[in-house]
Design brief:
Layout: E1 7-13, E2 46-50, H1 58-62, E3 65-67, E4 87-91, E5 95-98, E6 104-108, E7 114-118, H2 127-130, E8 149-156, E9 162-165, H3 172-179, E10 198-203, E11 206-212, E12 239-245, H4 255-269, E13 278-283, H5 288-303, E14 308-310, H6 319-336, E15 346-347, E16 358-361, E17 366-369, H7 371-378, H8 385-398, H9 400-407, E18 414-417, E19 424-427, H10 431-439, H11 454-475
Parallel strand pairs: 1-3, 2-4, 7-15, 9-11, 9-12, 12-13, 13-14, 17-18
Antiparallel strand pairs: 1-8, 2-7, 5-6, 5-8, 10-11, 16-17, 18-19
The chain binds guanosine-5'-triphosphate and magnesium ion.
């Protein structure tokens, strides 16, 4: 028996960004060349991609830790570090990605559909990129940002148009074997099928997939037999087919009661199957008693509103009508579905509010939260005063200082940037605010101002340059 794994917990880690390099160009007779430290490379992403050739999540069950490669650090001579390599993980069609709390992050349907499960860290800028008129030879570079590490749960929900449900040995797998080219295991003992089988049916110009699930018995919703767990594989189907056995030898069963039992279990499962169109297949009419029984109960089933098909997986009677009827329902459902579902989509993790940040006083510290300030902190080498100064300038330009003032922060108050457990905490020096004043605030147009002293104009140029470097960092998020 092949192993079938349809749920795994996966730990992904994207690659870290490479550090930027701080270096000064050296040449004979030119002892003080310019800064020439290159940018770090970006870390590789971890990307899930639907691959129709992959049918189980078994690989990830065996090795659930996956990491993309890191970006290389920048080097002197303006050499950028190499980017890390993306790690592409093939997953079966119909893989649902969830976080550890069961929130669905992505539903991967259709060959080639991608999901970035972990985003690589951006590379740090080298000192060459950080140089400016005022900061001619920066003695620092930005650090690479760590790649995103996440725990996710992958769950497989087979994508089939038609789902066969019924008691064990009703002939579900037999029907798949004669309607399609698939060759599932068939035997006369219950629970032959332990995992869903999938087949492809060609009916006229319509091609559709058909799947069975392990047989259901009374109490399946309480876990009897193989339980209802496998029903999630048919949640996406367009039509449910009740396969009823007209030739069962069990004295307490008949097709109509079987139907009631299975319907009760489906109701207990829910999962959106309640309102799915369904039809009834009376199987095994090649057996003489079966044919008689089928004819006898057909009116009652039709009175209940079911379309009824009498078939035999052995003699192939009635199969053509059945497969064309199913094709009709599938085609109808497809036509009603929005078109974009069939196109290839790339799903990225939800973008964080990029522009914003918040300042909150928690009774002890002023907490600054926001994508940019938090990243900037991670990019900062706190052993280097110049790098720390650069961070202060960046925070200033974003308006963090202003918001701290508004929130009531005073000299010497503690300020924390980042999430609780890994925040960087420092004592606030309002002198930075004065600096911000002189650098000019965003949004003001100095062309309407009276001429100002040269020093002030120089500072404006500096601010402009820093904003340009910032923009460079934002638009080349991966260094290089
Ligand atoms: N005479 C007759 N026997 C059939 C027919 N269809 C299936 N069978 C037999 O019924 C038995 C069960 O068939 P399967 O296809 O394995 O049934 P299943 O519904 O997939 O059963 P589980 O996988 O155990 O849930 C096998 O011995 C089949 O040969 C039919 O149309 N006529
Ligand atoms: Mg079977």
């Amino acid at each position: 028996m092949t192993t079938f794994v349809d749920r795994v917990e996966l730990h992904v880690a994207a690659g870290n960004g490479g550090h930027g390099c701080a270096s000064v160009h050296r040449e004979k007779f030119k002892p003080l060349g310019g800064p020439d430290g290159g940018n770090g490379g970006r870390g590789g992403d971890v990307i899930l991609v639907v691959d129709q050739d992959v049918t189980t999540l078994l690989d990830y069950h065996h090795s659930p830790h996956r990491k993309a490669t890191n970006g290389k650090p920048g080097e002197g001579g303006n050499r950028s570090g190499k980017d890390g390599v993306d790690l592409v993980l093939p997953v079966p069609d119909g893989t649902v990605v969830q976080d550890r709390h069961g929130n669905v992050l992505a539903d991967l349907v259709g060959q080639g559909t991608q999901y970035i499960a972990g985003q690589g860290g951006r590379g740090g800028l080298g000192n060459a990129a950080l140089a400016s008129a005022r900061r001619k030879a920066p003695g620092f570079a930005l650090l690479g940002v760590p790649g995103q590490a996440r725990d996710i749960v992958l769950e497989l929900k087979t994508v089939a148009d038609v789902a066969l449900v019924g008691y064990p040995s009703a002939g579900k797998s037999s029907l798949i074997s004669v309607l399609s080219a698939a060759k599932p295991k068939i035997a006369d003992y219950p629970f032959t099928t332990l995992v869903p089988n999938l087949g492809v049916v060609h009916a006229g110009s319509t091609v559709y997939t058909i799947a069975d699930v392990p047989g259901l018995i009374p109490g399946a919703s309480q876990g009897r037999g193989l339980g209802l767990e496998f029903l999630r594989h048919v949640e996406r189907c367009s039509v449910l087919v009740h396969v009823l056995d007209t030739a069962t030898l069990e004295s307490d069963r008949d097709p109509v009661t079987d139907l009631d039992v299975i319907e009760a279990e489906l109701r207990a499962y829910g999962g959106g199957l309640e309102d799915r169109p369904r039809l009834v297949v009376l199987n095994k009419i090649d057996v003489p008693d079966g044919q008689d029984l089928a004819e006898m109960i057909r009116p009652e089933l039709e009175a209940r509103g079911y379309q009824v098909f009498e078939v035999s997986a052995v003699s192939h009677a009635g199969l053509k009508e059945l497969s064309f009827a199913l094709a009709g329902i599938v085609a109808e459902t497809r036509a009603a579905r929005p078109a974009e579902e069939s196109t290839r989509v790339v799903i990225r993790p939800q973008a964080v509010d990029d522009a914003g940040f918040t300042v909150e006083y928690d009774g002890e510290l002023y907490r600054v939260r926001g994508e940019k300030p938090e990243r900037w902190v991670r990019q900062t080498d706190f052993t280097n005063d110049e790098a720390v100064g650069y961070l202060a300038d960046r925070l200033n330009r974003l308006g963090v200082e202003d918001e701290l003032v508004k929130a009531g922060a005073k000299a010497g108050d503690g300020v924390a940037i980042g999430p609780e457990d890994e925040a960087v905490v420092f004592d606030w020096e309002p002198s930075l605010a004065a600096g911000a004043e002189m650098l000019g605030r965003r949004g003001e147009d100095h062309r309407f101002d009276a001429p100002r002293p040269a020093a002030s104009r120089r500072r404006d140029r500096q601010a402009e340059h820093d904003e340009a470097a910032e923009a460079y960092d934002e638009f080349h998020p991966f260094g290089g």
